[in-house]
Amino acid sequence: MQFLRNVIQWNLFLGAFAFIVSYKPVIIMHGILSGADSMKSLQREIELLHFGTKVYNCDLFSNWFSLENAWKQVNELRDYFQTIGKLHPGGIIVIGHSQGGLLARATIQTMPNHNVKVFISLSSPQAGQYGTNFLHLIFPDLAARTVYELFYSKVGQLTSVANYWNDPRKQDLYRRYSVFLPYINNEIQTSNSSIFRTALTRLDKMVLIGGPDDGVITPWQSSHFGFFNGSLDVIPFNEREIFTSDTIGLKTLADHGKLVIVVKPFVHHLSWHRNRNVIREVILPHLI
């Protein structure tokens, strides 16, 4: 009986605390070749420790459908985000893991009047991907050095992976054929470039999470917008043009204290959203 009373008292406390704090609703977006089921650990932790939080665990483009063209996914995600945003005019939080973090960020950039307050990118290839470990998860017979022949073609660009494959030694082909990443990162200027930048700077906070033991995102610094140069040396995000020229608003966010860079070692790519300690340490503190 004492245990039951303690449980009831704890739930009453959590309910009162949630009412006072008023946690914002959270959208969580799964990564490539997975779905909402893969994000349930994260969902449970949020609902347990931030009692009363409404969590939307997005199941669009699950499993093999996650390989569909990135722009197709962004267009549908935009409708999804806008629908949820209208239900919560006080603002929402978006968390995306792996490819889901890149797609979520791009979706936010296409919404000039969004009410996303916090965006958390959880080990996502924000500056692109160039590495065998990731490639072999989807195409086991392809090699990083030669896959550009497929990815940088009209057929290859039908797949999401090719849309953010960023070969540092084939930048001319990357810019010529890639229909997604160089545009959403404003490496190629279009009539939408100002919208992409303005929308990102509407955020109250952007949190970029990654670490050296990720084992999938290559280079792992891509999770923070760092990337290889032509000699395969990694250039930190704050030394790259995307930051120094403020092409998508990263420097503006940083200058206003709205950009948070989290580097956490000893976390594998598939553990960021499943490991309870990691969730509590690097994700939950940013949901307030």
Describe the overall structure.
With 288 residues, the chain is of the alpha/beta class. 39% of the residues lie in helices and 12% in strands. The chain has 13 helices and 8 strands. A 6-stranded parallel beta sheet has the order 2-1-3-4-5-8, sandwiched between helices. The longest helix has 20 residues, at 2-21. The mean pLDDT is 93. It catalyses: S-hexadecanoyl-N-acetylcysteamine + H2O = N-acetylcysteamine + hexadecanoate + H(+). It comes from Glossina fuscipes. It is found in: Lysosome.
Summarize the structure.
With 288 residues, this protein is α/β, with parallel strands linked by helices. The chain has helices at residues 2-21, 40-49, 70-87, 99-109, 132-138, 148-151, 160-163, 171-177, 181-184, 193-201, 241-244, 250-255, 276-283; strands at residues 26-29, 55-58, 92-97, 116-122, 205-210, 227-228, 234-235, 259-263.
Which structural traits does this protein have?
12% strand; alpha/beta; glycoprotein; EC 3.1.2.2; AB_hydrolase_fold; palmitoyl hydrolase activity; 13 helices; 288 residues; lysosome
